[in-house]
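In response to the reviewer comment on reproducibility (Comment 2.3), we provide here a single inverse folding case reported in full, input and output, so that an independent group could reproduce the run without further information from us. The structure tokens appear first.
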């Protein structure tokens, strides 16, 4: 099989689908690789590094998409990339289709076989290809929020950890999953007053056992969430529903009643956002002000630390790439129910129930869909 790695073109995206070391393994398995020139620049890998690993170098994305049987990316393909996909071609990347009907339509029309990192599962029902980026995003969310609390950034002029004699900032984290737990770790380490809300007692028990008295854990109800958000200096939205649009838990009315200079960080923005007033921003222009509240809603937070993020992502994705290459798309998807959970679009059919529900489209069972490959 020929694996293609184009240069990411999403704004401020510096990650790359495969590192030179991953390419070396793919070539060792007897496969070919084609990498677009400059694709690894953000991780400090130049074209010669990829050549040394056994890849050929393409000058343009058209060449990568035209020659590859499987395209491996990081972020969802933009419109000009989607036009390059062809029927039966594999695409392995983050997709986040539920809030993006335009992308979904283009992928359906392309006839490609599109596997989303964010819905691949493991034997525990967890999301192993989302977890490494959720770890990065959770840690960076506190870092970004702390910066936004500074007066020059529009915040209330607070040091997140306070100083002796001056209390720390109140940080409220909505959702105690991978993003939330990692945000909690950093916020605690910075000395903040941290409260985490979740609706899973197991999650709350885990966080309480790990952080003990350093964190307040609260079972989330609408009234409790509202009370805590209105009293917070920094709110981090870390809510995830596999494959689906994020629920709007922080309403516009709540935002209008928050303290001036408080900060909202919506880590769920790539799934539509869990804060009603948020909209996607970029690393180049990461925040906007509404009702006196700073909103940070960068849709590719880990893209700011591409070396860390790319290597962490490849640690999780490489085995699946090798499986797809070694067995072919049909056999690999048939053999592995966890990889099959990642199949979102297959030759004009939606094969992820949450995406179909979000977009009002017909759902086809992935086992049925792959019989046509």
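Designed residues, in position order:
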């Amino acid at each position: 099989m020929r694996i293609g790695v184009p240069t990411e073109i999403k704004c401020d995206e510096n990650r790359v689908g495969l590192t030179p070391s991953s390419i070396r393994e793919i070539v060792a398995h007897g496969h070919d690789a084609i990498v677009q020139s400059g694709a690894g620049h953000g991780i400090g890998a130049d074209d010669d590094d990829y050549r040394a690993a056994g890849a050929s170098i393409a000058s343009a994305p058209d060449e990568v998409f035209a020659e590859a049987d499987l395209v491996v990316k990081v972020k969802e393909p933009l419109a000009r990339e989607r036009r390059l996909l062809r029927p039966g071609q594999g695409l392995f990347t983050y997709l986040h289709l539920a809030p993006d009907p335009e992308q979904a339509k283009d992928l359906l029309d392309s006839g490609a076989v599109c596997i989303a990192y964010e819905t691949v599962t493991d034997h525990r029902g967890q999301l192993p290809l989302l977890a490494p980026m959720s770890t990065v995003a959770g840690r960076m969310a506190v870092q970004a929020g702390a910066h936004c609390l500074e007066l020059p950034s529009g915040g209330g002029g607070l040091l997140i950890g306070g100083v002796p004699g001056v209390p720390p900032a109140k940080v409220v984290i909505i959702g105690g999953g991978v993003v939330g737990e990692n945000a909690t770790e950093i916020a605690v380490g910075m000395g903040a007053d941290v409260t985490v809300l979740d609706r899973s007692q197991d999650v709350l028990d885990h966080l309480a056992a790990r952080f003990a008295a350093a964190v307040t854990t609260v079972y989330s109800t609408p009234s409790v969430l509202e009370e805590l958000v209105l009293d917070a200096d920094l709110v981090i939205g870390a809510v995830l529903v596999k494959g689906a649009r994020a629920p709007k838990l922080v309403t516009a009315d709540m935002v209008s009643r928050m303290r001036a200079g408080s900060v909202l960080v919506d880590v769920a923005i790539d799934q539509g956002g869990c804060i009603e007033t948020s909209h996607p921003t970029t690393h180049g222009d990461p925040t906007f002000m509404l009702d006196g509240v700073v909103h940070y809603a960068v849709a590719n937070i880990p893209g700011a630390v591409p070396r860390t993020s790319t290597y962490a992502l490849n640690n999780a994705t490489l085995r699946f790439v090798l499986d797809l290459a070694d067995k072919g798309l049909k056999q690999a998807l048939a053999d592995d129910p966890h990889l099959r959970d990642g199949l979102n679009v297959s030759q004009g059919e939606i094969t992820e129930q949450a995406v179909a529900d979000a977009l009002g489209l017909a759902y086809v069972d992935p086992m049925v869909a792959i019989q046509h490959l």
